Amino acid sequence: MQDGCMVASRIGRRPSFEAQKNHRKAFAMAAAALLLATLFNAALLTRPAQAAGPLVVTLTFDDANADQVAAANYLNSKGMFGTFFLPSGYLNATDPNGGPPPYMTTAQALALQSAGNEIAGHTVTHPDLAQMDANEVARQICNDRVNLTTMGFRVTNFAYPFASATPAVEQQVANCGYNSARGLGDLKSKAAPTLTEVAEPLPVPTADLFFTKAPDEVDNTWAVADMQAVVTQAEAGGGWVQLTFHHFDSATDPLTVTTTNFQAYVNWLVTEQTAGRIVVKTVRQVMAAQFPDPANPALDLDKPLVNGPAAPPPITVGNLIQNPSLETAGPVATGLPYCWAIGAYGTNTHTFTSVSPGHTGSVAEQMVISGYVDGDAKLLPTLDLGQCAPSATPGHIYQMSAWYTATAPTQFELYYRTGLGTWNYWTASPNFAAATAWTQATWTSPPVPAGASAISMGLNLLSNGTLITDDYALYDSVAVASVFKSMTPSRLLDTRNSTPVAPGGTVSFQVGGVNGIPANVSAVTFNLTVANPTSFGFVTAYPSGTARPNASNLNYATGQIVPNLVTVPVGSDGKVTLYNQSSGTAQLIADVSGYYVPAATSAPGEFQALAPSRFLDTRNSTPVAPNGTVSFQVGGVSGIPATVSAVTFNLTVANPTSFASSRRTRPEPPGRTLPT
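^ thats the sequence. predicted structure below, dont judge the formating
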C-alpha cells in the first residue's frame, strides 16, 4: 500500500510505510467504537441491508497531477466520471527547472468539475497525518476544504495521504464537514492477493465511512487484466470498489499506468456497464445513495465549512529549527525524528535510519542512496502549515548550518511556502566536500522571495552514497534590531554550588523571564568566569537548543581563574548553553550585566545578535608577524549587512612566541593610524 504523491518536482514522493496496513488494522476496533459513539446515529444514517445490485465502481485520481487531465477527458468521453482528490497546496505549482507544470491549474480542475467529475479533499500539503499534532491535522484537513471551496469547488469527500490515519484523524475528517474518507489496501488485488474481502458493502457500514475500503493503488506492475480482476471478482456479490490512479505514462514514477492500458480498461468498463454487471459512480454519488434524505440537515451532503486552528506564532529569535538535534522521535514508529520528513525526486533508491551516536547526543540520521540515475534525496523540516516548518520573512536572509559525514558531496537544498500552503523549490547552496569526520556545513541564503511565509532546508545527496547529519540550525540574519538594557549585575549560574561541568560537557542557564529580564530577550551580556579547572581548555557560549558553533569565548589553563565578557543570542527557550572543551572539569560562573530586547523601530547603531561564527583563525594559515597586522572581512558575510558600522567579537591570542601588552594587541579598522 502506498499513496505516492509528489510534493513538488524537486521535493518528490515521500516514501510510504508498509507498516501503515498494520497501523490501520491496529486502530480498526477503536475507530469503530469512536465513530459509532461520537460521529453519527447509525440508525439515522444508513439504509437497511439490501439485496446485492450491480457492483458500483469508482475511479479515483490522487494528487492533482497534470497528466490526469487527458485521462479524465477520455473517461468523460465514454460517459463516465471520476473523483479527483486534490491537495489545494499543489494547484498551480510550477516546475523549477522550467518544464511543463507538474500539477493542474485551478482552471483545469474547475473544467473537470464542470464536465461532471467530482473534486474532493486530500489535505493542503499532503503530509502523513498520523505524524501530525492535533492542530496541524485540523489545519490540513479543514483548510483544504475551505481552500478548494473558495476556488469554486464543491467538496464533500476526502482521501488520506499515504492511506495513513488514526481514530482521532478520522474524527477530525468528520469534524471538518466531509461525508467519507478513502483508505487503501484493504481489498484483494494484485498487490494483496491473500486478502479475502473484495468489495466494500453498500450501504457502507458506519464504522467504515471514514476509512472506506479500497484495493492498493494501480502502479506500473498492473496489467489491464489485473485492473479487470478487481472488478470481476466482486461482481457476483455487489458492493463498492474504488480504483486509485496517480500518473499516466510517467517514465520516473512507479505509480503510473500507460495511456493505452487505461483506455483499454475504460473501454472494458463500458462493456461491463452496458451489460448491467456494474455501474460507474463518483464517491459523491455513492454517498448520495448512502444518505437518501436531503430534508434531514444531519444528512446534508454539503455541510458547513470549518476553518482549522490558526498556526502557532512564528519563532523569530534563536534557532528556527524544531528538534534540531533529531533527538525527539516522531509519534509513530517510522524511524523519522519529530518535525522531520523525507524529500526526494527523480530516479533513485533511498533509505533513512537513525544511527548512534550523533554529533551531539545519541541520535543522528543516516541516508543511503543506491541505484542513482538522477534527482536527489534529503531530510527536511516537515513541509506543513505551521507545526514544524520554520517561519520566514520575505526579503530576509537566513544563515544555516548542519554537521555531517558523507561519502559524496552534499549541499543544502531550500524550499519556501506561499499562498494557500504551496511549497516551491527555491535554491541550493554550493557543494560541500565528502567528509569522514564530523564537519560543519554553513551557508547564507539569498533574500527570501516575496510572498513566502516559511522555509525548509536540508542536506542532500545527488549520487550514490551515504550521508549522516545532525545538529541543524537556521537563523534569521536580518533579525529585528535590538536595544541594550543595562541592569544591576545578577548571578544566574554558579556551578560551585552544585557540580563542575564535565569534560566535553554542557550546562545551560535561564535568562529570559528571570531576575527582571523580560521573556522576549534576544541576547544577553554577561561576565563568564572559569574557576578551578583541572586541565586546560576553552568555553563556548551559544543559544540553547542550537548546534554548537566552531568558536570559543574563553580560554584557560589548569588551575586558572579567568573571566571574559560575553554577548550571545538567547535560545527560543530563553536559555544560554556553555560548553566545556577540556579533558578536565571546570566550574563556570555567569554574572549578567545587561540584555537586548527587540526595538520598536529600527535606527542606525542598533545591535543585532547573530549566532556565533568564526571569521578568522590564523592557525589555519600563518601566524601574525612581529608588529604585523591581519584583516578579516565582516561586512556582507555570514548574514552581516554590508552597511555594518561596528562588530562585537571575541579576540583570542594563541601560541605567542613572546609577550605583548594588551595595548599592542588590539583590533583597529583598516586604514586608521595605530594608537600609541
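The longest helix spans residues 19-38.
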